[in-house]
């Protein structure tokens, strides 16, 4: 069950795994680490928008959608979630423990530059549907 910290729900690895495993799930999951971290290991299919860049596009995102943010340990993604909440997004979550927890749990990771967003368009955040 999601833990609430400073008004932000924190999902654990099992909760996030259930979201990313279901391509029909409309929750938008975004990795907010730096490019080097992402290319080394990331959750397959997740788009990368570094923390420093996501603040520039917040006004272009749909406030009616639900978002989960992922980073290395859960600290940067928590700050992004709080920023989104302060900007009128009601359904935001942090992935508690981040990629460190994901890998510690033995969950699958990918490497490479498969979904790095350099020129943003909202369609890039949609997961592939089966």
Short description:
This protein is α/β, with parallel strands linked by helices. It is 32% helix and 15% strand.
CATH arch. level architecture: 3-Layer(aba) Sandwich
Question: Do you know the CATH topology?
Answer: Oxidized Rhodanese, domain 1
Strand content: 5-15%
What letter string, H or E per element, gives the SSE order?
A: EEHEHHEHEH
Number of strands: 5
Q: In the CATH hierarchy, what is the class?
A: Alpha Beta
Helicity level: 25-40%
Number of spatially distinct domains: 1
Q: What structural category do the secondary elements indicate? A: alpha/beta
Report the principal-axis shape.
Answer: globular
The side-by-side strand order for the widest beta sheet comes to 1-2-5-4-3
- Largest sheet features: 5 strands, mixed
State the separation between the terminal residues, measured CA to CA. 27 Å
Uncertain parts: none
CATH superfamily: Rhodanese-like domain
State mean pLDDT (0 to 100 scale): 92
What is the tally of helical segments? 5
CA-atom Rg in angstroms: 13 Å
InterPro entries: GlpE_sulfurtransferase, Rhodanese-like_dom, Rhodanese-like_dom_sf
Organism: Paenibacillus contaminans
Protein name: Rhodanese-like domain-containing protein
Pfam families: Rhodanese
């Amino acid at each position: 069950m999601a833990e609430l910290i400073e008004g932000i729900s924190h999902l654990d690895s099992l909760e996030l795994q259930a979201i990313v495993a279901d391509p029909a799930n409309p929750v938008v999951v975004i990795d907010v680490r730096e490019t080097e971290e992402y290319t080394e290991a990331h959750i397959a299919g997740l788009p990368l928008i570094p923390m420093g860049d996501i603040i520039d596009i917040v006004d272009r995102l749909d406030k009616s959608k639900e978002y989960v943010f992922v980073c290395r340990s859960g600290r940067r993604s928590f700050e992004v979630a709080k920023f989104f909440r302060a900007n009128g997004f009601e359904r935001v979550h942090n992935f508690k423990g981040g990629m460190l927890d994901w890998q510690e749990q033995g969950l699958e990771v990918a490497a490479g530059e498969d979904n790095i967003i350099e020129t943003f368009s909202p369609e890039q955040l949609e997961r592939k549907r089966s």
